Amino acid sequence: MASITENYLTDGETAAELRVTTRTLARWRAERCGPAWLRVGRRVLYRRESIERWLMNREQVPVREQAA
Predict the structure, then answer these.
(1) Do 48 and 8 touch, CB atoms closer than 8 A?
(2) Interatomic CA distance for residues 12 and 31, integer angstroms
(3) 20 to 30 A Cα–Cα from 61, which one of 1, 16, 41, 53?
(4) What is the per-residue pLDDT across 23-36, written as a single tens digit (0 to 9) for each?
């Protein structure tokens, strides 16, 4: 049976995936500029889809491609 939280990553797992520190994630939460997250008790969890959406929204199109 699958776990109800299998689509969620912990703070440490998310930091490892994004190659940042957990401290950076904490700062992003405080500044409200990182991926969407939720708190379950004392644990911070990130939904995989939310992380992917956040990354996609941060994509930058090179200026030369915009003119085409």
Answers:
(1) yes
(2) 19
(3) 16
(4) 999 999 999 999 99
Point out the residues of the chain with pLDDT beneath 70: 65-68
Query: Which residue's structure tokens are 């998310």?
Result: 14
H helix intervals, 1-68:
11-18, 22-31, 48-57, 63-67
Fold of the domain spanning 8-67: Arc Repressor Mutant, subunit A (1.10.10)
* Residue where the block lists tokens 């440490």: 12
pLDDT of res. 66: 63
Cβ atoms of 20 and 33 within 8 Å: the answer is: no
Distance (Å, whole) CA 33 – CA 65: 26
Every domain of the chain and the residues it spans:
8-67
Could you tell me how many residues make up the chain? 68
